[in-house]
Amino acid sequence: MGENVHGTFISEKPSKIRWKPEELFETQTFLTGSWDNEINNIKLWTYKVSQEDPDIYPFVLKTLPFKGDVTEIKFINSNTAVVSSSDGYAILIRVKNDQHGGFELEEISRFSNLHYFNKFESSPCTGLSVYDEDIVTVGEDGRINLLNARQSRPIQVIENADSCTLKCVCFLKHNEVLTGNMRGQMKIWDIRATQSTNTPTSTFILSDEYHGATCVTYHPTQRHVVLTGSEDGLISVWDLRQNMYPVTTLNAHTQAVAEIQFHPSHPNKLFSCSMGSELWAWNSNSKYITNNMLNMTQISDENIWLNADLSKDKLEILSLMPNLNLPMNSLDVNRDKVLCGCDNEAIYVINNIEY
């Protein structure tokens, strides 16, 4: 491991890892969720760095048992997160200070039976997304649920939205979501329609070949710019103003893309991890792009990710971790630090990443 990589063995396989957002100062607190246990856990972690010992050693503050595999964690605000389960439900959890100056981690609400094949068989909730206090979930049952953090029952349900497993979802607007399925079909839905409908407003595919979508994210400042990862390791870039075909497709990882995420304040940098144990930082700063690609000119206002000539060979790609030969399931970025979790039952903090 490099000097800026600090690993911690946690005795369980982490499926998701997320920084706790803070507005005024750099966060040192994060959540993990596990998978592949009879009873899994949601854990609240923190770490301290001192001048005497600059190494980062995360330690657990609180643990919340969880039934089913944790399939997603998203923060709604700095103290509240929603967590989805392979048993077809989701919960809201709150991080709060106790009377002794410590932390509490508690379940405050539960959305039961969101996804199911029939009333006797639950379906995994495979993904969720948040927009303010609104929450959208998708599952293997092909169902889409619109929830709100202040209500215990769904606001809107699109039954049979897809005939196969929905793998990922993200909000595009407060009334619009994008879903991806295991056949590689991407669909845009108006989830605030007066009458529930099974008809998407737009449908397009990842590629001409049969490769399922695995993850999706949007550009921090231009929400119409969307990146998707697929089972064959490709990362596709879309301009949803003209969404029939990807603007460009990057031959990225050797195995399925587990997660992709832009740096929240430096969207020239993208992070991705894969089932092939890779964790990469992609830099699209124009100073790293060849002159041939830019035709000897600098692109200033144009979003570089929408350049049709963009390719893996024309980006600066940095491997942040050595290959551990097991899936790298999740990542999250905050300022100059990256979190990741691997099936070797360890989590890692990568410090001092370059912008």
Describe this structure in words.
It contains no helices and 30 strands. It is mainly beta. The protein has one domain: YVTN repeat-like/Quinoprotein amine dehydrogenase (Methylamine Dehydrogenase, Chain H). The chain has a four-stranded antiparallel sheet, with no helix packed on it. It starts with a strand and ends in a 5-residue tail after the last strand. About 4% of the residues have low confidence.
Write down the Rg.
Answer: 20 Å
How widely separated are the two ends?
21 Å
CATH topology type: Methylamine Dehydrogenase, Chain H
Mean pLDDT: 89
- List low-pLDDT spans: 288-300
Quick take:
This protein is mainly beta. It has no helices and 30 strands.
What labels would you give this structure?
single chain; 355 residues; mainly beta; Methylamine Dehydrogenase, Chain H; four-stranded antiparallel β-sheet; 30 strands
Q: How would you summarize the topology of this molecule?
A:
Elements: E1 5-9, E2 13-19, E3 29-35, E4 40-46, E5 59-66, E6 70-75, E7 80-85, E8 90-97, E9 103-111, E10 116-118, E11 121-122, E12 125-131, E13 134-139, E14 144-148, E15 156-158, E16 166-173, E17 176-181, E18 185-190, E19 202-205, E20 213-218, E21 225-230, E22 234-239, E23 248-251, E24 257-262, E25 269-274, E26 279-283, E27 316-319, E28 328-334, E29 337-342, E30 346-350
